[in-house]
Design goal:
The complex is a heterodimer of chains A (666) and B (166). In chain A, strand 4 (554-565) and strand 5 (568-573) form a beta hairpin. Chain A folds into 4 domains: 1-165, no CATH class; 176-403, no CATH class; 404-520, no CATH class; 522-625. With 666 residues, chain A is α+β, with helices and mostly antiparallel strands. In chain A, 63% of the residues lie in helices and 11% in strands. The model of chain A is unreliable at 649-666 (pLDDT under 50). The relative contact order of chain A is 0.08. In chain B, 57% of the residues lie in helices and 0% in strands. Chain B is elongated, with a radius of gyration of 32 Å. In chain B, 23% of the residues are buried. Classes of the chains: A alpha+beta (666), B mainly alpha (166).
């Protein structure tokens, strides 16, 4: 009964979406006010309906209702409760339901926090979101209904994919989807602006916080995915350039270009039509990513749920969205003037460079991901494109980006004197050259030239931003008073500035992490008997043997290690090898001792012989945490920027009565 | 299910599952750390042909195990990296390589992106730098004023009662 209720709620949501797509937009074009005011209640209604459907599916999981096909395929009575909940989005149908739930939540958020926007804009934005919702709800109801019944009812369900039975993966998809779907808001704002034919700085200011929030979620989502792959897949890698990973990276790259180009549009009313195009691309690439992941056209190590017939639907949907919005763009954009002249040395130029490089990155990822398909389509043979290709391509462009990130914020809008920029940055430049020279000394024995280059670029990024902060606070005392001055600035108008600085310092951390890790990590495969010791990177690993350890729905072999540095015991590690009841490949649960400057990582291979020997993998991973800390700093920077009072996201409602009162007195 | 039966069942499952389980390189003996590093590098850049996008270094499949042994055998027999790669490509095609070499059939792969980036950059620069003869040079004073007014009064406009009686 409850699953049918969920199904019914989904159908109602579709009907609401049709009304939402049609009436507010029509109202905004014909000046029909009542139709426009329908937008907000419709957005709330949409969220309510989908939340009911989501709750119904969750309930089916919690009660192990195996008469629902999707539950029978992705759950099991032995599954711990937390994974019964995360199993709701553990497969194709459920992840789509999560996707539409989040889209509806974004729609409702726009409705709730847009009190300061003209009604026509709100109506159009919510209408465009309704159109996108129609596509996804139709897709679900026609090809991927999560409430499909199963008869006869099996006594026990199949299990959730053991890879997904992990806290990291329980929250990774929701974060990622919040990002993907969040770009639908930027998309909706862009399309609404094109419909209205008015692309101006106000439009940029309105859509900017939404875009940044979506970007923050996507950043965190990708970071969690990378972290999860690192500890769960058991080979210690953090990025493999797998199609599924690339699918999430492409919207992020375009989204990063977009938040920078929005800054130009807001501040200088330039780049207008280009910014709109980026907003369209960011969401289109989110859809393309979904298509690639869901259709199974690409082979991926993470392909959890694929079905070619569904691919066709998404492909058609993708064509409508991309084709429709690009047609609208081609029709409307030429009317937009792209004002705002700027000199060769100016903030605009730097941001233009940023956009060029991020677009190039996106082209590289898209091309590398699709190249095997292209080759097959043209009968040029079967090829594989893997990490060596992507690494080479990215390494060729990244240094330019790093240099630019330091220069851009130090340069003034419209035009600047190169000597003035140099005067601000000279000591940052000098320090990074020192870092380059010192780390290139043979003393440190870095075989690769990339280590000094990477460290110097990171130093440049960091010190350039210190210099930029100093320049901003030039009149507020010397270095000693910088702390209080920054705090005062944060209470004032400086939040988006410090958000930018934080995010860019995050890039510096990321660069350090990638550089050091990829050149100095150590890995060893050894066979050890209980009582044996093995040394790696100055750490001595003592193996105490492995014991059976039963879990709720699996049986594990649990190894025990003591790790010493000299005579001091650093930590004890307990890696596991699990065989799940549901069958499938055994899972390696690596044991990790995390640290700011190094991780020690042990994973169990397989038992060898009859004397309790094991084949083991030991890793030493220097600075690996800096990769994710860098990403966290980038996301924090985004949060700080959004909290800038000038967006008044949260304050919009509070201000409303005051403004009304002011209008009344007038 | 009683816990004992559950445990026995699980143990049986575990025993069944083990043969296909994760491998390590401990069985391979190397003359020098450099040779080991070269072996690791080699297998990390070769694709496991039957897997869903996994390298020989990462895969647990049986075929991957066989290929690893093959690569190891050839390396111990003193064959160079290129000889090993040539042998594998002759047998399995370019598909086995994660790092396709530069040759006529891969020109599209290596140069294609830059052609596309060039085209994209052209259109982007045109979109950004294009100037209409009548285009506003900057945010004009009037525009600035209009925007300020818009952002100031936006809350009034956003309410359901647009017309303020004066």
């Amino acid at each position: 009964m409850i699953p049918e209720l969920g199904h019914f709620a989904l159908i109602l949501a579709l009907l609401l979406a049709v009304v939402q797509a049609a009436f507010p937009l029509a109202g905004s074009l014909s000046g029909n006010r009542p139709w426009m005011t329908m937008a907000r209640p419709l957005a709330y209604g949409q969220l309510t309906m989908i939340a009911v459907a989501f709750a119904a599916l969750t309930q089916a999981f919690l009660t192990s209702d195996f008469s629902v096909l999707y539950v029978a395929e992705h759950s099991n009575t032995l599954l711990p409760t937390i994974y019964k909940i995360s199993a709701v989005w553990g497969g194709h149908e459920g992840s789509l339901l999560l996707w539409v739930l989040m889209m509806a939540a974004w729609g409702a958020a726009v409705a709730a926090f847009s009190g300061n926007l003209p009604l026509t804009v709100v109506a159009r934005v919510i209408s465009v979101q309704g159109m996108v919702a129609i596509g996804f709800l139709l897709f679900m109801l026609l090809t991927s209904n999560p409430f499909e019944r199963l008869f006869p009812v099996p006594p026990e369900g199949r299990d959730l994919n053991p890879l997904l039975q992990d806290p990291g993966l329980a929250i990774h998809p929701p974060m990622l989807y919040m990002g993907y779907v969040g770009f639908s808001v930027a998309f909706a704002f862009a399309v609404a602006a094109l419909i209205g034919g008015r692309l101006d700085a106000a439009w940029a200011r309105w859509s900017r916080p939404w875009t940044t929030v979506a970007w923050v979620f996507l950043t965190i989502g990708i970071m969690l995915g990378s972290w999860w792959a690192y500890y769960e897949l058991g080979w210690g890698g953090w990025w493999f350039w797998d199609p599924v990973e690339n699918a999430s990276l492409m919207p992020w790259l375009v989204g990063t270009a977009l938040i920078h180009s929005l800054a130009v549009t807001e501040k200088r009313a330039a780049f207008k039509s280009w910014t709109v195009l980026l907003a369209i691309c960011a969401f289109s690439l989110s859809l393309l990513g979904t298509f690639l992941v869901r259709s199974g056209v690409l082979t991926s190590v993470h392909a959890f749920a694929t079905d070619p017939s569904r691919g066709l639907f998404i492909l058609i949907f993708l064509c409508i969205v991309v084709g429709g919005s690009l047609a609208l763009y081609a029709w409307r954009a030429p009317e937009v003037s792209d004002g705002g002249q700027f000199g060769v040395v100016s903030r605009e130029s730097a941001l233009l460079g940023n956009n060029l490089i991020f677009v190039a990155f996106t082209v590289l990822v898209l091309f590398g991901t699709l190249a095997p398909l292209i080759y097959e389509a043209f009968n040029w043979g079967k090829i594989s494109v893997g990490f060596p290709w992507f690494n080479k391509m990215f390494l060729a462009l990244s240094p330019f980006l790093a240099v630019l990130i330091g220069l851009g914020p130090a340069t003034r809008w419209k035009g600047d004197n190169p000597m003035r920029v140099l005067k601000t940055l000279w000591w940052a430049l000098a320090l990074s050259i020192v870092v380059l020279a010192v780390s290139a000394l043979p003393l440190f024995g870095h075989g690769s030239l990339w280590v000094p280059v990477g460290l110097a670029l990171a130093a440049w990024l960091f010190f350039a931003h210190v210099a930029i902060v100093r320049e901003r606070l030039r009149n507020k005392g010397g270095l000693a008073r910088m702390g209080p001055a920054i705090l005062a600035d944060l209470r004032g108008s400086g939040r988006s500035f410090y958000g930018m600085v934080t995010a860019h310092v995050g890039v510096a951390m990321f660069v350090v992490g990638v550089t050091v890790l990829s050149n100095d990590q150590l890995e060893e495969d050894v066979r050890m008997s209980p009582g044996d010791s093995h040394e790696l990177a100055g750490y001595r690993f003592e193996f105490l043997g492995a014991q059976p350890a039963p879990g709720p729905n699996y049986m594990a072999q649990r190894g025990e290690f003591k790790v010493y540095r000299g005579d001091r015991e650093v930590t004890r590690l307990y890696p596991e090898k699990r065989a799940y009841m549901g069958g499938g490949m055994p899972m390696t649960e690596a044991a990790i001792d995390p640290g700011l400057f190094r991780d020690i990582y042990v994973s169990l291979g397989e038992p060898v012989g009859d004397d309790g020997d094991w084949a083991l993998r030991l890793y030493y991973k220097p600075f690996v945490r800096w990769i994710w800390l860098g990403a966290i700093l980038m996301a924090l920077g985004g949060v700080l920027a959004v909290s800038d009072p000038r967006y008044r996201l949260a304050g919009a409602r509070a201000r409303k009565p005051a403004a009304d009162a002011a209008a009344a007195t007038a | 299910m009683p816990p004992l039966i559950k445990t026995i069942l699980l143990a049986a499952l575990l025993a069944l599952a083990m043969p296909a389980s994760a491998y390590t390189l401990e069985e391979f003996q190397f003359d020098s750390p450099a040779q080991e590093a070269q072996f690791r590098d080699l297998i990390s850049k070769l694709r496991c042909l039957v897997c869903q996008n996994e390298s020989l270094a990462g895969s647990q499949a049986e075929l991957a195990q066989d290929l690893r042994n093959e690569v190891y055998r050839m390396m111990r027999a003193g064959q160079s990296k290129d000889e090993i790669l040539d042998f594998l490509v002759a047998r399995y095609g370019d598909f086995v390589l994660y790092d396709p070499p530069l040759k006529p059939s891969t020109y599209v792969l290596w140069f294609g992106p830059f052609v596309i980036i060039g085209i994209a950059a052209f259109f982007m620069l045109r979109a950004v730098l294009r100037r209409k003869p009548t285009g506003d040079e900057d945010i004009s004073e009037a525009e600035r004023e209009r925007l300020r007014a818009l952002l100031e009064t936006e809350s009034a406009a956003g309410t359901d009662e647009p017309k303020q009686a004066t």
